[in-house]
Amino acid sequence: MNPDSLTNSGGRTSVTRSGRACFTALLCCAGIASAAEPSIWMEWLASSDPSTPFSFNPADEGDVTPDQNGGLIYSGSLQGDMWQMSWTTRARNTSGTAYLDTVVSVINTSDDIQAFSLDTSMSLTDPLTNPGEVDLAGSLALTNIGFEANAVATDVSGQSLVEVGLNGTPEGSLFDGPYLLQANGPFASAIDSATSSIPTLGLLNEMSILTTFQLSPGDLLNITVVMDVSDIPAPGVLSLLALTGLASTRSRRRRSTSWRAGR
After folding, report:
1. CB within 8 A of 84, min separation 6: which ones?
2. 41, 172, 196, 254: least CB-packed within 10 angstroms?
């Protein structure tokens, strides 16, 4: 592996697997994410690049900004001799909810078809103890950015273009193989979308999104994937909420009766 051959938009060397512990320590010391924020890791692979796969913390390879809805937004880019990749990832884990969405843009700058994959994982600092179904949605946007031929995005060996995991185990998918998306003609584009839901069982402490695809030379593919899940209130909590609502209703009725009696 030769990580020095890969740089991000700021000219920094890419992150290798061996740097995980170091970057975790740097992230905590720098205060980029508080203890309440989920931990994000990515692993990138380009089939033409022998220095991949490599793993990295997106906080160290790009920018991190607060999300107006809570959580953090990670954005950045990396490039090699035969590819360019950028990401914008939102991660949130607060008050019995977990949310992960990522937008990945990949350009194949080589003269041959390449296979690419990006694995994005989120470890929850506030695990969900009674999660409901995971809502899953995804979209693809393929663009022919040249004057020649057509743009094509396909599956790799029958694998789904999007696979999602819960607690480290694959549990759902979108754009199942065999799959083909094609944009015909110069600067043409093609889009596709899909939705699904995934049942959960027991404690949820990790969510992941794996995108895997082949892309024609000189073309661009944008992939957007969203995962969203919330805890289901326990029966005792539901009963308490119902009693609270009933007590509030009775209180309003008593106030209304007293007001009429005093007229």
Report:
1. 77, 78, 105, 106, 107, 109
2. 254
CB count, 10 Å around CB of 243?
10
Q: Are residues 51 and 8 in the same domain?
A: yes
Contact 134, 164 (CB under 8 A): yes
169 with 246, same domain: the answer is no
Higher pLDDT, 111 or 148: 111
Which residue range forms the structural domain that includes residue 246? 234-263
pLDDT at 167 over 80: yes
Instruction: State whether 179 and 113 are in the same domain.
Output: yes
Q: Does residue 248 sit in the same domain as residue 152?
A: no
Q: What is the pLDDT of residue 228?
A: 97
Distance, in Å, from the CA atom of 187 to the CA atom of 193, rounded to the nearest integer, reads: 20
Number of domains in the chain: 2
- Decide if pLDDT at 243 tops 60: no
Are 62 and 151 found together in one domain?
yes
Q: Please name the residue that has the structure tokens 């796969």.
A: 53
Alpha helices in the chain (DSSP H): 20-30, 235-261
In the DSSP assignment, the letter for residue 17 is G
Instruction: Report how far residue 85's alpha carbon sits from residue 63's, in angstroms, rounded to the nearest whole number.
Output: 15
Average pLDDT for the chain:
83
pLDDT value, residue 118: 99
Please say if the pLDDT value at position 180 is more than 80.
yes
Nearest to 164 by CA among 129, 201, 190, 135: 135
